[in-house]
Amino acid sequence: MKSLSTEPANLAEGQFDLIAKALADPRRMALLESIGEAKECACQKLLRMFPVTKGTVSHHMKELSRAGLIDTEREGQFIKYQVRRKVLKAYTDELMRRVKCDD
Amino acid sequence: MKSLSTEPANLAEGQFDLIAKALADPRRMALLESIGEAKECACQKLLRMFPVTKGTVSHHMKELSRAGLIDTEREGQFIKYQVRRKVLKAYTDELMRRVKCDD
DNA sequence: GATAGAGTTTGATGGTTATCTGACTGTTGC
DNA sequence: GCAACAGTCAGATAACCATCAAACTCTATC
Asked: B25-43 burial, b for 16+ CB within 10 Å, e for fewer?
């Protein structure tokens, strides 16, 4: 068994690596920050903020989603994103645990 | 002047991105974990634990060092590494701050 | 100082990925 | 249905990077 008495969602197998990878690209990190600024965020808003095409934004959103870092919800013709803060917290916890920063 | 006893060090300009990049490669992350297992760790020990050449280990150590995640100290013909836990802590703090997980 | 071992550096290579373009799907309102 | 807009998908390209092999530097010991 892994650990006891900790609340934040545990990461699935391989999710740690996916998250680390997702956070590694500065542009993607910036997008995540923008999503975190508002409670929810539409793709169009991101497009206006960054000099990239919508295809690129879509790609980054897919990666963030695959890592479990954001929630995606369709709202009519728009799509809204939200940061899954518990997952991010689980990542930093696991990171600290692996490098023996807390034991 | 830099930090008080319990204060986590602040990250230098660009260091956040370097750390994120350094943590993104699974092998490099595994090396960092191994260094964290012991209080200090020699390169030869890492070579015995992972199926990579010394050139590759050296490369990863350089990246971890460039990110400020490890300290490197020459001990005779060996080199010993130590995790700079305060830097890692500063990284996770900054990460949480950027995604508004704590405000 | 020669030999051996520890680590670095360099050049090459193969795999990964960020990005664009353009085609496609889906939704809204006429 | 169709025109317009939001987002996805697929193919292409260029940059990046993990890895290896081999040459190199540094240190210790004989």
From this structure: beebbebbebbbeeeebbb
Cβ separation of A98 and B26 shorter than 8 Å? no
pTM for this structure? Answer: 0.89
CB-count exposure of residue B48 (10 Å: 0-12, 13-18, 19+): exposed
CA distance A77 to chain B (A): 26
> For B37-89, how does the pLDDT look when each residue is reduced to its tens digit (9 = 90+)?
876 667 778 888 899 999 999 999 999 999 999 999 998 889 999 999 999 99
Q: Which nucleotides of C are covered by protein (CB under 7 A)?
A: 5-11, 17-23, 26-28
Beta bridge partners of A41: A81
Q: What is the pLDDT of residues A50-60, one digit of tens each?
A: 999 999 999 99
